[in-house]
Amino acid sequence: MGTADVEAVWRIESARIVAALTRFTGDFGLAEDAAQEAVAEALVSWPLAAPANPAGWLMATARRRAIDAIRRRTALQDRYALLAADAAVDEEPDPDRIDDDILALMFISCHPVLSPEARVALTLRVVGGLSSEEIARAFLVPVPTVQARITRGKKTIAAAGVPFELPPAAERRERLGGVLSVIYVIFSEGSTATSGDRLLRPEVAYEAIRLARTLAALQPAEPEVHGLLALCELTAARFPARTAADGSPVLLEDQDRRRWDFSAIRRGLAALAKASTRGLGPYGLQAAIAATHASALSVEATDWDRIVVLYEALGRVAPSPVVELNRAVAVAMASGPAQALAIVDELIASDRLPGSHLVPTVRGELLARLGRRPEARAELELAARLCANQRERSVLLRKAATLG
Prior knowledge:
The protein has helices spanning 3-25, 28-45, 54-71, 77-89, 98-109, 116-127, 132-139, 143-159, 169-191, 202-218, 223-236, 239-242, 262-275, 282-294, 304-317, 321-335, 337-350, 358-369, 373-386, 390-402. By secondary structure, it is mainly α. The longest helix has 23 residues, at 3-25.
């Protein structure tokens, strides 16, 4: 077995291993360190002698590493004796508790005591099984930065005395939003990279979908979990048509909809149906918007009036300037650019999205549709200067050039 085999097993089993070790040791940081040491050992030993049960091997090795670490902590001799006895009896995690273990792990990784950056890094590391190098590539930051976030995150959790347990039901409902927001941030970075020379990072987006599926299986009665999963599936369904062969972006109106992933659309619609059982929340409403796009044969055939209504509902339950900007785009398609421009100008007057390339992008498009070409070109050039993603910037500059 080679490196790829080790990585594949780790990606599948990492959350279970870290969760089980955390429950056994009561120490999230120790568990994650021990698991990483087991992976390092596997990279050396598996090519020489592949284990019959790779997941069991990783669990047993990680548990031995954890026990060795606890043995070195003389103040924890009693706990070491308990763990040693436990390990001698049963090398496998309790299957009756593993789902709750993984759910508890997700809540710890997304704990409010952590910074947003640490939540993302820890979730991808301990729940998703990504290496520091993979996380660094995904978010275009140096590897030491990711490692520092993970280290600080584990220390913060230890200092705060965060227990390895599911929060009480009422608190769990409150904190679920934090878990969902982390998965959403991960997916958003994969679906439209904030910087760099790639529009999409599908591997990052699909990791978020995997996390959302796991959460939906563990929390099947939570509509917004299914809403987020539906949003991710329906958005990712358009990935195959969003870029040309050279990686350049393909706008929605130019996409070959035959290339959309219809299996993903079906999965997304099924998740949306589950999200709709008790009324749609913010993620469910966004998924409903994505579903409206997914069911249309073309941009012209899209039910833009429905999308406007959905954005209005979203603005009531989760108001934000980005929602208003997206509503303006829908209003332009449903009722014309003049009404939409008034919405955008109001956003600019209130300075609610300072420094964002999105506002001049939309404003430039609207001005172009109104025939105000010099103003439109200036807006699109401003948007290009503000945009950190090279692929998006090239599209903006190309559009601006046509207005000269």
